[in-house]
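Example record

The entry below shows one chain as it appears in the dataset: sequence first, then C-alpha cells.
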Amino acid sequence: MTDRPSPDGRPDEPVSDAASAAAALTYPCGEPPAPGEVREVAPGVLWLRMPLPFTLNHINLWALADEDEQGPGWAIVDTGTKTPETLAAWRQLIAPDGPLAATPQGARITRVMCTHMHPDHVGMAGWLTRKFQCRLWMTRLEYLTCRTLVADTGREAPEEAIRFYRQTGWSEEALDVYRTRFGGYSKYMHAMPDGFRRLSEGETLRIGAHDWRVVVGRGHSPEHACFVCEDLGVMISGDQVLPRISSNVSVFPTEPDANPLGEWIESIARLRATLSDGLLVLPAHGEPFRGLHARLDRLAHGHDRGLERLRRSLAESPKRAIDVFGALFARPIGSTGDLLGMATGESLAHLNGLLALGEAVCETDADGVRWYRLRAAV
C-alpha cells in the first residue's frame, strides 16, 4: 500500500494489487457523447456532455423523460457553465432538427434540477428556465448559497477573507491575487431565477413514468442533491461520488470553523449503508460506472490515509495550513492561483477535522498566523 497522496491532488491514493480486483469499477456505457449529442444509458435517461474551460474539461448532464400539464418533455439535471461553447451545444440539442427533437419527448424542457451550486452545474440554469418558462429545482441551502455568492460580484474582497487567508500563511503576493479575483463566481453564471422549487432529503419525485428519490450528501457543498431511481437501478450522483477523483472538500472564509470533512465522511458512510451496490452511477465527471460500494470504500479510505499522514506531519512540529500540502497532495501547489486556494481549503478541512476529533490544537502567533499541532497525550 502506497503512503503517498495521488497525483490528481486529492487524498484518493492507488490501492494495492491484491485489492484492485475487488475495488475495480466497470464502465458499461462506452464513450461519452460529443457536446450537442445524446446517448441513452437507461430507458428514458439520456447522457449529455458539455465542455468546461478548466483543467477538468467536461461535465456530464442528464435528461430524464418527463411529462407535465403541457405534455412530454425532458427534466434536465445540471446545466454546464455560461460559455459560448456550452450555449452552442445547448442550441444544437434543442434545435428543431436536433437530437432531442428526434426523441418521442421532443425538445421541450419541463424543469431544470441542479445537484448543487457550483457554476459548472448551475451556470446555464437561468438561461434554460427563462427560455422554456420552467422552474429551477434545488435544495434550499444550495440555492441560497448560490445567490449569496452571486451577490459578491463587483465587491472588494472583505477584510475577513483577507485575514482568513493570512492566518493560513499566505504571502502578500497571494493575497493580492486573491483580491483581484474576488467576486468572480458569476463569470460563468447566467442570472439565477428569483424563485425555485425546493428539493428535500428523502423526497420522492415523479418524473415521467418513474419515481426518483432525493438523497442529500454534504461536505463538497452544503446540501448536495443526488437522485436515485430504484425502478431503473440508476443514481445521478453529481459531484458527491466520482469514479476517478475525490471531490474537493474545503473550508472557506464564510465559515472558518466548519467541519466539511466530517460531513463528507458521514455522507459516504450513509450512502454506503443505504444504497444498493448494483446501481448504475451517473457522475458529473468521468463515465457512468458500477461498483458504488467499492468506490465509497476507497473514498473513505483515502481520507483516512490523508488524516494519518497529517497526524504524522503535525507530530514532527507545529504547522500552518500551507505547510501540510506535502502530506495531502502529490502535485506541486504553487504560491498563487486557483490551485493554492483549493489546496488551502482542503488542508483546512483536514485540520478542522482533527480539531473536531480533539486530536489537534490551534494557536495564533503575534502576526495572526494559525499554527496547528497534535494534542499531547494524557
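Notes for this example: The mean pLDDT is 93. Residues 292-316 form the longest helix (25 residues).
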